[in-house]
């Protein structure tokens, strides 16, 4: 497998980080959390000669799924999520899209299990269930390249909010301690909002744990 590259497009009312991961020298990408505007993402990537081969969700909140249906329609790519988030993805009240003024439900094509290894576009990753921000939040770990797509579970010197439906701070902190803090210090963390960080930096500087 070639070295993985990662790009970021930040957009939407919540300034959501939409990451695209691809093998060096290739033009088909894994797209994580398509934020508000799937058509914008599709066209922005197309302008750079990229195509979307798969769409993966870290969780089902409105600011991460509003663009999913349009991007799936335009790209023909399948939508993937952790099985623990199925209910929230399909409920406009639980995913807060109704309260945000644009009710939205999405039905993933494929549901992952916790700890499942997957290979998409020749890229192998692992699903790490990290409930807390939502009941079915997850992270995606690419061990060889030491990349962690953390969604709204772990931020630079912070963690995701837990006051929305299915959230729990005690569960979130436990998920981070037991599932993420066991990873190597030099794993680069790419969160759903804000700048990137590393596991080692968060272990030393994050006051939540």
Brief characterization of the structure:
This protein is of the alpha/beta class. The protein has helices spanning 38-47, 62-65, 68-75, 86-89, 169-180, 199-205; strands at 4-11, 16-23, 28-32, 51-56, 78-82, 110-112, 117-120, 123-129, 138-142, 147-151, 154-155, 158-159, 188-191, 197-198.
Spell out the key features of this protein.
209 residues, alpha/beta, six-stranded mixed beta sheet, 32% strand
What is the strand tally? 14
Distance between the termini: 35 Å
Instruction: Note poorly predicted spans.
Output: none
- Topology pattern, helix = H, strand = E: EEEHEHHEHEEEEEEEHEEH
Biggest pleated sheet: 6 strands, mixed
Q: How are the strands ordered across the major sheet? A: 1-2-3-4-5-6
Mass-distribution shape? globular
